[in-house]
Amino acid sequence: MAEWLRRRSKLVVLLGLLKDQTAAGLARASGPFSYLQIAMVMATNHSESLPLEKYVEEIIASGSGSRMQVSFCTRFLVKRLNRTRSWAVAIKCLIILHRCHLDGGFLFQDLLAYNSTKEGKGYLSFPNFKSDPSSVDWPFFFWVKRYARYLDERLCCCRALKSHLDSRWKSHSFQNTVEITDSRELLHQLDVLQSLLHELCQCKPSAEAEEHPVIQGALVLVVMDSYKVHDEIRVRLKEMLARVKNLELSECFSLLHNCKRALSQMQTLQKFLESCKELSLFLDIPFPEEDTPSELDIQTLTESIQSMSKQHTVSSYMIRSESSVHVPFRKDGLLPRSTSLFASQPRQLHRKSSYAPEDAQGVYSGDDFIDISHELKPSTVGRGHVHRATMPDLISF
């Protein structure tokens, strides 16, 4: 069995080398961007090692060129990702796309965001990338799928935030933008960021895959993103907790859900960083801050929701009681002083008969109200057959 696996691995290496040489030969005769195509082919070859940095830097440097160059790079990498059946080629394409989105400049960020919007959420899904769960490479295939889902969610999150998650930006640089953002928009951004953090924590590799150098190289980028994502969530939660007195009841319920979810995700993120620390990927992996939200913040928010719920119940009962009051009309088109009106109702009704002044004492007899006890026939109205005693009492609106 071991001999068969050894022969199979040699055959896979030879086929991968043949494919790389063929792709490089075709790239040399491709057209005006042949040097970029050669760099991308060499950076995403079939060898199970990290892409050479000189090729990655050449691809990233194209971000300072024309938009046509950047569009060519993104289309080529995504096309190669969707066509390959090798996990090594797939993870290298994803690493380069991740690096381009971080360091490639505005053109790479804008084109990747636009293409993900155009293609939908499965922009980096690569449907042809399949493997048998019983194969030797299954742990690597599985982790690459997780990594692709995280990058896809990352593009969707950047589109919702209308900014790009860059760990080199400090919290005070975007805190002013958060302060002037609407509360509903902040709640939507919190939902998107917490979904991204959930996908990030799912990128924990298995015991078989965590020792591979290519997966460790991709894991370094994921760990760097975790601090930025957590910082974005912390700043928005802090701002929303400061606005509790001005929030509606439904917004307070959403904020309470986000706070409880943030506490549970904080524990999951710590476990993820501890597992990465055991791999010695960094000299030191500091744990993120835990100041927001605290248990005291959640308790205060819960008490605010309870008080707002009681006020909402009392006010709704008062509105129902006021709407059920019968408001009588007088003959002169006025209402008694004891009757309260809403602002939208008219104070006086127009009529054809002469105006009768309002009683100074505010006391009215039963004769002041309209007598509608007399039965009228529709056939007699307007033909002079109406009873004379009721004619002056008719009001035309």
Describe this protein's structure.
It is a single chain. The protein has 397 residues and is mainly alpha-helical. Among the domains are: 15-130, Serine Threonine Protein Phosphatase 5, Tetratricopeptide repeat; 168-308, ANTH domain (Methane Monooxygenase Hydroxylase, Chain G, domain 1, Up-down Bundle). It contains twelve helices and no strands. It has helices at 2-28, 34-43, 53-61, 67-83, 87-103, 106-119, 138-161, 171-179, 183-201, 213-242, 249-278, 295-323. The termini are far apart. Residues 1-7, 338-360, 362-374 and 381-397 have low confidence and may be disordered.
* Counted beta strands: 0
Looking at CATH, the homologous superfamily of the domain at 168-308 is ANTH domain
CATH domain class of the domain at 168-308: Mainly Alpha
Strand content: under 5%
Order of helices and strands: HHHHHHHHHHHH
Largest sheet: none
Kindly report the CATH topology of the domain at 168-308. Methane Monooxygenase Hydroxylase, Chain G, domain 1
Structural class: mainly alpha
Report helical residue fraction: 55-70%
Q: What is the name of the CATH architecture of the domain at 168-308?
A: Up-down Bundle
Number of helices: 12
Evaluate the radius of gyration: 35 Å
Stretches where pLDDT falls below 50 for ≥5 residues? 1-7, 338-360, 362-374, 381-397
Mean pLDDT: 77
Shape: elongated
User: How far is the first residue's CA from the last residue's CA?
Assistant: 98 Å
